Each structure stands twice: as structure tokens, then as C-alpha cells.
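Render this sequence as a predicted structure.
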Amino acid sequence: MDEFYIVPIVFLLPLSAVMVVMQTNPYTALVMRGILGAVSALVYALLGAADVSLTDALVGTMLSITLYAIAVRSSLSMRIGAIKLDKNDPLLVPIAKSLSKYFMRLEIVEFPDGDHLNSALEKGEIHCKFDRHETEGCKLLIRVPRLYEILTAAGIPNLSIVLLEKTGAGL
């Protein structure tokens, strides 16, 4: 009964695991995953398995969180390609707002001409193409169906949103 202090620490494992699963923000989930790894390493150390504890702390916690952070950072961005797009364009604010609800960020990539822009869209280097015409207004050509769903649900005025076919039609 001398090691009764281990019991509350062990109960932190399922508690922190449930907290990881319940997170909607991926960055908060990464922090909670770090706490889960630290608690498990502490439990291993308290139970006398120092080698397992060290391995869990280094590989299971630090390395996995680093890799997850890189994956989350690269996957939660929407890259808009355009020719000479003003960073203060009034249409970019509602687009960025609608993406922020899903913890995504907006990246603007400028291209020198339409050929480079269309090529980047076909190759998948950008997710959508922003066209501003004097007569037609603003058009956003999107190649990712989920981004199309997010932005059409936002109902951004003065912006026509078109989902492109996988064959590249509409470029």
C-alpha cells in the first residue's frame, strides 16, 4: 500500500485519452497527445521500466507530435492562385472567416500569367483559382470538393464558386 500514489496517476491515462479524442481543434489535440505521452512515460518510470519510459517519451511523444504537427500544418491550408491578387481584397476576408471555422488558413499564391496559374491548378499545387473579371464579377474555380462544400455553405456574396471536374474541364 506504499505505492498508492500511482493509482491517481494511472487514472490520468484514460482521462487524457478521452480528452484527445474529444478535441475538435487539431492543435489542441496535439497538446493533449503530448500530455498523454508524458503521463504514460511517468507511469512507466514509476513502475520501474525506465527504458520503456525513455522510449515512450522520445519516440511515442516527441517524434509523433512533431510529425503530427507537420502533417496538420500542411493539410489545413487552402492555397488560392491568382494573377496580381490584392492581399486586402474584400472577398478574401469572408473566405478566410469561413475557413477559420474549420481551423484552416488561407494562402495566396500569385502567378505571372494565366498559363502558369492553370498549370498549377492542374498539377494540384493550388486548391483553387481566383478570377476577377470586369464583366463577369469574381469567380472561384475549386478542384477540392470539400472546400467547395465549405465555401458554398458560407454563402459569400458577389462570389461565384465553381467545382472543377477531375479531368481539368473548366480551366
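Summary. Residues 77-163 form a domain with the D-Maltodextrin-Binding Protein; domain 2 fold (CATH 3.40.190). The chain has a mean pLDDT of 85.
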